[in-house]
Task: structure prediction
Amino acid sequence: GENVEQHPSTLSVQEGDSAVIKCTYSDSASNYFPWYKQELGKGPQLIIDIRSNVGEKKDQRIAVTLNKTAKHFSLHITETQPEDSAVYFCAASIGTGTASKLTFGTGTRLQVTL
Amino acid sequence: GAVVSQHPSRVICKSGTSVKIECRSLDFQATTMFWYRQFPKQSLMLMATSNEGSKATYEQGVEKDKFLINHASLTLSTLTVTSAHPEDSSFYICSAPPVGPSSYNEQFFGPGTRLTVL
Result:
């Protein structure tokens, strides 16, 4: 089955700096790659996603890049703010339709310091 | 839009009792819902896929007789933890991909249910 690896496990940046989180996946058939932000005691919140027919997607301070050849994708957060502090999960899924399962990475705890 | 709710948000029960957790899609229909379990400082682990009008499919290693799933309507799925034991204490989260023309399944997650078994 699909395996998703995520690095780093923890990341500390100063406010205003950029943060980058990287994930690799094993199954070349994966075609959907969402990123989730999870705050303590809450469910994951979808913050951005990318599909296999796109190499890059940006939404304000957040961007995601996908390299299908290397089977890795990355989350980029610019101008970080204290409210960006949370755990971030990448995920990958194969196929189309509502029954496609997500395989999650192990998570990255991001801390933005003042 | 795309809001998923869970009830209760937290529950404490005695060992040996059963606990039911509800997952509702508030503003969309979902023929499929997913149930995850998350232990502290760990990732989400898929337990089972809930299918409206048919049996749930369980991931390897998940006991279907212990974790009963019922998807009674297009907006409601329930997870019942039967004969709960302390090792079942965890954060249970559901998700749902909206039914629609999208060819990829965006999943929207509920806020989670914290289960503590004494």
